[in-house]
Amino acid sequence: MIIQMEAKAGEKQLERLVERLGNDGFPPEMLDISRGDTFILVGLKGDTRAIDEGAYRALDYVLDVIRISDPCKELTRDFHPRPSIIRLGSGLRIGKDLAVIAGPCAIESRDQLMKTAKLVVDAGANILRGGAFKPRTIHRSFQGLREDGLKLLAEAREKFGIPVITEIMDARDIHLFVEYDIDIWQVGARNCLNYTLLDALAEMKNPKPVVLKRGDHVSISEFLGAALRLYDGNTKVILCERGDKTVDPVYRNVLNLNNVAWLKKRYHLPVLVDPSHGTGVRQIVPDMALAGIAAGADGLMVEVHHKPEEALCDGAQSLSADFKKLTPLVRQVFELRRQAKML
Amino acid sequence: MIIQMEAKAGEKQLERLVERLGNDGFPPEMLDISRGDTFILVGLKGDTRAIDEGAYRALDYVLDVIRISDPCKELTRDFHPRPSIIRLGSGLRIGKDLAVIAGPCAIESRDQLMKTAKLVVDAGANILRGGAFKPRTIHRSFQGLREDGLKLLAEAREKFGIPVITEIMDARDIHLFVEYDIDIWQVGARNCLNYTLLDALAEMKNPKPVVLKRGDHVSISEFLGAALRLYDGNTKVILCERGDKTVDPVYRNVLNLNNVAWLKKRYHLPVLVDPSHGTGVRQIVPDMALAGIAAGADGLMVEVHHKPEEALCDGAQSLSADFKKLTPLVRQVFELRRQAKML
Amino acid sequence: MIIQMEAKAGEKQLERLVERLGNDGFPPEMLDISRGDTFILVGLKGDTRAIDEGAYRALDYVLDVIRISDPCKELTRDFHPRPSIIRLGSGLRIGKDLAVIAGPCAIESRDQLMKTAKLVVDAGANILRGGAFKPRTIHRSFQGLREDGLKLLAEAREKFGIPVITEIMDARDIHLFVEYDIDIWQVGARNCLNYTLLDALAEMKNPKPVVLKRGDHVSISEFLGAALRLYDGNTKVILCERGDKTVDPVYRNVLNLNNVAWLKKRYHLPVLVDPSHGTGVRQIVPDMALAGIAAGADGLMVEVHHKPEEALCDGAQSLSADFKKLTPLVRQVFELRRQAKML
Amino acid sequence: MIIQMEAKAGEKQLERLVERLGNDGFPPEMLDISRGDTFILVGLKGDTRAIDEGAYRALDYVLDVIRISDPCKELTRDFHPRPSIIRLGSGLRIGKDLAVIAGPCAIESRDQLMKTAKLVVDAGANILRGGAFKPRTIHRSFQGLREDGLKLLAEAREKFGIPVITEIMDARDIHLFVEYDIDIWQVGARNCLNYTLLDALAEMKNPKPVVLKRGDHVSISEFLGAALRLYDGNTKVILCERGDKTVDPVYRNVLNLNNVAWLKKRYHLPVLVDPSHGTGVRQIVPDMALAGIAAGADGLMVEVHHKPEEALCDGAQSLSADFKKLTPLVRQVFELRRQAKML
């Protein structure tokens, strides 16, 4: 961290700053002071994460406070050079093997879930998704089957031998997720910065892997800050990129693949990509799935429905009515991943 | 709602659509069907809020589904022509009298809060704010005094006879807010779409007024959807505009005053404006406070600290060290409001 | 400018950097070098505007290059403490007197322009606007009356004794603007970064005042960079804020009043605000006009049409059919400006 | 196009609308009128591109005007089902063969360009880029070698037998581009909506292929509108995606690959991707190049410099000092393209 003061501040102001830094745990020997004609620069050595930049910006003569080191050091490749690998009970190693998560936006009925699960397994996907608790903008819309949905997921897992993922929206539902032994817990985009929920998950004993979806316009540093909250209590954190709202009416969101490339390059957590929410346009979901894998993603999360025209939510984002498109897509992403490893 | 189909769809597809609409509660007599050369347009009469657009978009030959009526009808001026007025115990009528909420970002100590409260009251503000629970990006930063903060707020209220507002982040803290009889409960920007929290607040008996801050890049329709969740159980909902992240590094956020003007013009809930978070630049907070009032806002929420250079968070956004600027600002906003009423 | 190197870079790399800085005009005596455990910071003293940051960022071991001083120093209040005032032939002093520019988006006919001009003058506005050359997204739409439009504007000026402003899109039209002696030349938002056009305008002898509209998502530093290109040859530059595209479908653009407050606080050029394009929603144009003035703007630019339902472009943004709303708005903005001066 | 009126408008208002539509070339037989309880919907049959939506939105009782058909019909796959292929003199078929355009941001000297050109050719790229005219934010920065740059490009083309591309910023330079017989003319992002320049290029006899880069936050419809201006006079138009500014300080821009997938799916023009400007982060340029090809792009445009640490602009975005990374990247993109064709 560098604090930039106006040179005209004078020694008295500088002393005051140095004293204050001392109170915040940075005695003079942890400071680099450089006096120039225009600016005085004070560099801080050591872990500055607990320092509140704003408090220093508010000081007279302070022009700027510049953070240099990464406040989420534990998540960087410097700290943990190799990619983290998260093993599921099924043997799948997320971060190493390609994860293909598919399933309906919302679980609507046993029949729907079992049919979809069969199609998902047959297509070659290796994790089944399905929403039991649904955050909907208009609260009088369908909100999910809730506990019954979890029960159906558990049933599908037994029947098809495939791990399952579903979204947790409320810390008060943790016991249900434990009861039905959900394999991967998802924190949705709207709750990306819901610190209450993240902290409750981080405090669990024997936690399961958690997929954290990036919220709308959440920056890389906010996203990693949220991930670190989880990681402190549960290292099995998987990131998921799902796009930002856009000024262009063509899309629901625009997938930010810069994030996938950057998170993989600099940090060690596995990264998934959700081309369904990241576009909101069914026709380009397969292209963007491939693009995500090419950018370095460790897997996909796609919405599918055995009859999208009857889906109770997000039908336009589902892949296809008859799954004719899921099978070739899964084949393609595995092939692309295999080749990417060789490139 | 209008469903737009390709004309080449043919009668069979149209029948299928009509049948499906019937199942969703829209029999043929509630439909307007218009056949053109290129498109068939099906208009739905009645309350279409429970209809899932996505499901219809996924049907073959359906090109688009266009919502026309406002899903948050109860919040519109059509439904409730006069502005809602929310009375506090102090007699202040939010939505009619100008509300000026001021205080520190975070409550740090009794001394700090009492000093600030005195300055706030002397300056002419009529509601005291202070954060007890703080959502911070990096979780190892200072997270607030929590219950002790609520206790101090209650003490300040007694001492200065001023209502208090503070942020609730977790439904599990509701009993504390009840215990200390917090006058106005704030839902922060990060929790704007935290439906779990909103629903818990909506279910309360004898609820207090709630200020709902717009989250980053949350659209008007999402914001109203969240407000309606609260409103269904508690009509004392106050909206607050606090800006969006921006591509321009000059600001922390950009205040969206279009929203203030539009929300006041079309909806009946009171609207506040937060120029501190809406800029992140101390020098322009007063200008943007005035601009917010000129755009139609019913009040302000500003951060102040008796010594901003010692604030533990958000110091750069606080108004001034010695409150020299708060008093003239309060005088100006009251004057502007008075004149605006006469203009 | 501060160049931040990794401490592990070693003296050799540092020497190489210092040598390179010497070649770029920064000999060792213009550098402040501060060696820390983690970083080496090299501060540059003097005018660094010609330095290319990217070239230094590309050097091995360089982590960041941080610009501190304003590359548009001539436009700051440090350089020119009082607001610039631009006098028109009519005696109006832009930057001191409130400028109210009103008129149709496009000039359509003599009848339309003269009727509108009369209404504009009667309502109390002091500059007449009207588009002669129109940049339209779809090029087969109406593109403006071109030279005939300029002729009509000149005619309206003579008839009503009011200065006129219109947009120049092409350096090849400069002679026409000179011929019809257009009082204020506007560079539109799409051409904000069209350096060819800006440079051509800057090279003129005896130039007229130029209004430069901020382009979509153009940052403050890009905007000032464009303004400085003009200012180097013509100090009579007036800035105009007109909003950015938005993710919210309610608006065409969102007016960024942070920019108005910031530009007025830190820089000396006059700043106008365009609430018509900055919203795209007729109902809130008056509110946003007032908000703009409250934020510190020196004037307004609003679209009006004597019969908006017949306007050939941008009708939804025009103020009203019968100008009933323009007269009270002009009265209000003058009243607000008067009071703002006294506040 | 559908015009939505309130049902309470009454027959008189509807007649007025119908009459007005008649004047605009839509007699009653080209209208579909559907009367509902809440709304009257008027559908227009035929080519509505010349209709000004705003004028209709401004009418009393009109709530909305909804465009349905694509105003850039000629660019769609409906109109031209197969991808357009643009042949260069070198035999390269853009839209069919993978185009790999590489070279320095700015041409700085003969030595630099010739060395870079050799490396580019050796690495397997098939088009050489280099900026002769440079749009720089701060106009006192290096602005390019101008005509001398074009001359050097022509020399490099002769020497290495590789077609060249460079940016045209001013219609007054057209004769120079003709004189040096530049193979592909680039319109840069800042000039994407500079209609003066686009129209001048469209009017040329025997035009060369033009690459049109998408400007910051330019929407798909604006981008296609600009492309159509060119296409009307010169069908050899190539689109290039290069990202938008972002709220995240990590990147200079975020590449929008949704656009690549969508433009390829729905329109027939070739689409390139520029991962250098689309990220501004050297480390992820190769990943995003691959992602762009996977999303369907017909080629790449990447910045390289034989010694990036000495580049006069955009060094941080250049690929590498010694080109060690260009050769494997070119190999990878060709391999990915080959496989994508087989997937």
Automatic annotation (TrEMBL), chains A, B, C, D:
GO terms for molecular function: aldehyde-lyase activity; transferase activity. This is Phospho-2-dehydro-3-deoxyheptonate aldolase. One of its GO terms (biological process) is aromatic amino acid family biosynthetic process. Residues 1-69 form the DAHP synthase ferredoxin-like domain. Residues 89-335 form the DAHP synthetase I/KDSA domain. Keywords: Transferase. It comes from Desulfarculus baarsii (strain ATCC 33931 / DSM 2075 / LMG 7858 / VKM B-1802 / 2st14).
